[in-house]
Each structure stands twice: as structure tokens, then as C-alpha cells.
Amino acid sequence: MSKMKKSIETKLQSLKPEFLEVVNESYKHNVPEGSESHFKVTVVSDEFSGKMLLARHRMVNNILADELANSIHALVLHTMTIEEWFEKNGICNDSPPCLGGAKSK
């Protein structure tokens, strides 16, 4: 497990997640092999109850402020309550393609 992924997972435990998934998507971008700069994070927590999407994202961004300021270039967030997670059958959208340096196929 990568150092950055572990750091993100550890810090987001403060949200008491029912489900947490951190995926390093750096390999999809034009970055050096082994980079830890692009992440997709899915957090399912009742800490998000009654909060709009922007407030949820701010909560996560505040928790990961140091990583966002120093290491992470892109962070895709899926923030849901347990009820919302079940309504979506545990399925999240794919991350959008990188427009500024995605690897060509």
C-alpha cells in the first residue's frame, strides 16, 4: 500500500466511515511511474447527514489540507451517507478524464 493512500485512509477515519475506498489513479495520467498525485476517494459516513455536497467536500478537504497543499494534484470525491450508498447500490461514477496530461492510448 502506498504511503499517501495509507495517510489518506488514516486521516479519514475521523469521519467514522461505514465504507472507505482510496484509489490511486495517478497511473491514468502523464506523471512519473509510481506517482501518488491523483486519487479517487469514496467515503460513506453518517457524519454527512444533513450536509450538502459542498459541505461534505469541505469536510474532507479540511482533513486532507496538508496533502492537498503539498502532494495531491487531483482528488475525486464521492461522499455519501449510508442511506445514499444503499440507494446507489454501492456504485460510484468513474473519475472524469484528465484534460491536462492524460496518457494517450
What key phrases describe this protein's structure?
single chain, 105 residues, alpha+beta, GMP Synthetase, Chain A, domain 3, 3 strands, 31% helix, 19% strand, globular
Give the name of the CATH architecture.
Answer: 2-Layer Sandwich
- Could you tell me the radius of gyration in angstroms? 14 Å
**What overall form do the CA principal axes indicate?**
globular
- Count of individual domains: 1
Spatial separation of the terminal alpha carbons: 26 Å
For this structure, the CATH topology is: GMP Synthetase, Chain A, domain 3
Largest sheet: 3 strands, mixed
Q: What's the total count of β strands?
A: 3
Structure notes:
With 105 residues, the chain is an alpha+beta fold. The protein has a single domain (3-87), classed as GMP Synthetase, Chain A, domain 3 (2-Layer Sandwich). The chain is built from 4 helices and 3 strands, in the order H-E-E-H-H-E-H. Strands 1-2-3 form a 3-stranded mixed β-sheet. The longest helix is centred in the middle third of the chain and has 11 residues, at 53-63. The radius of gyration is 14 Å and the shape is globular. The mean pLDDT is 84.
